[in-house]
């Protein structure tokens, strides 16, 4: 994972920028930049999933908590799924998952 090594830990700004880039590149998903962005988004999901889960567990039991927990479970599975997915849709799904995890982890967007 290039973005999670000791030399460069991505910031919230990096993550937000890549979410925006992914949304822009979803129309040209085969481009080299799109592939690199997909990889970074997968890394961000791994970085954010546990902090998001910790925050969601602190929420009172409610429909909102149920939705948040389901979103986190989906985000955790998303990087592994997708062998037969449209690359543009895949990029958009990864971006959405990162956006939600940032929200649930309590990071500014």
Account of the protein in words:
- With 109 residues, the chain is an all-alpha fold.
- It is built from four helices and no strands.
- It has helices spanning 12-25, 32-57, 63-77, 87-104.
- Helix 1 (12-25) crosses helix 2 (32-57) and helix 2 (32-57) packs antiparallel against helix 3 (63-77).
- The chain is globular, with a radius of gyration of 14 Å.
- The model is unreliable at 1-5 (pLDDT under 50).
Strand-pairing-aware structural class = mainly alpha
Total number of beta strands: 0
Helix content: 55-70%
Question: What form results from the Cα inertia axes?
Answer: globular
Radius of gyration: 14 Å
Mean of residue pLDDT values: 88
How far from one another are the termini? 23 Å
Q: What about the largest sheet? A: none
Order of helices and strands: HHHH
Q: Given the structure, what is the number of helices?
A: 4
Instruction: List the uncertain runs.
Output: 1-5
Strand content: under 5%
């Amino acid at each position: 994972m290039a973005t999670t090594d000791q030399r460069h830990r991505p910031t919230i700004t990096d993550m937000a920028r890549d979410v925006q880039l992914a949304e822009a590149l979803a129309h040209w998903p085969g481009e080299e930049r799109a592939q690199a962005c997909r990889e970074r988004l997968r890394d961000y999901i791994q970085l954010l999933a546990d902090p998001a889960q910790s925050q969601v567990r602190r929420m009172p039991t409610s429909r909102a908590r149920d939705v948040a927990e389901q979103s986190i479970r989906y985000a955790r599975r998303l990087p592994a799924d997708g062998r037969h997915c449209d690359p543009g849709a895949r990029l958009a799904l990864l971006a959405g998952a990162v956006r939600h995890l940032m929200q649930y982890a309590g990071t500014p967007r």
